[in-house]
Amino acid sequence: MFDWSAQRLLVIAPHPDDEVLGCGGLMHKAKSAGAEVYLQFLTVGDTADISAKGFSTADERVGEIKAVADHFRWDDWHIAFPGDDYHLRLDAVPRFEVANMIERLSPLSVANVEPTVVLAPHRLSYNQDHQAAAEAVHTALRPSDTRLRHHPRLVLAYEEAADQWRNEPTTAPNLLVELDQAAVDAKIAAMRLYGSQFHDHPHTRSELTLQSLSVLRGMQGGVAFAEGYHAMRWLV
Fold this sequence. Notes:
By secondary structure, this protein is an alpha/beta fold.
């Protein structure tokens, strides 16, 4: 049995809400067990959307982050590349810059936090910022001498329902984290706090989608609920 109480989690989220969609249940489970949880957001800016208002502002979304941070009791959070010059344009930023930020330059870098677990988006997402984030994490956590650079022992790529929108075959998660009803409820409640991003069903960011995916992954592990991950490193 994996001891979440002894872990220090660093979650890399391209945008505010990706962390809830991908690993909201795990964050609740780990924090409830006594783990430390740190959130490194990469970017946020003004965003056109399909809401009645038609857009959400960066200030609005930062306010949502603060509410979600209180909800999950994160130990700290940080935005690496704020503003419209970066938001939805991370693919135009040299990977060297994004990887360096994740590896050692951010206040919540791997070097500073020294996490035991890193969670990051999957590279098969259709979203360009998610792809850039995934590739940068892959570079930042490259194998090297553990005496010289911190190596998280567990590195997981989290999934979002929208990741299935691909023109190439996708593989099922190879690691399942069991959730209880409280963790699923906490995940959905957190998504509701991201009011600018939450949608009615049918939508990839609806309550029914989050509930259904947790039921599907749970069924695959023979339990009621779970989140699915792709293990990139598991050093035991």
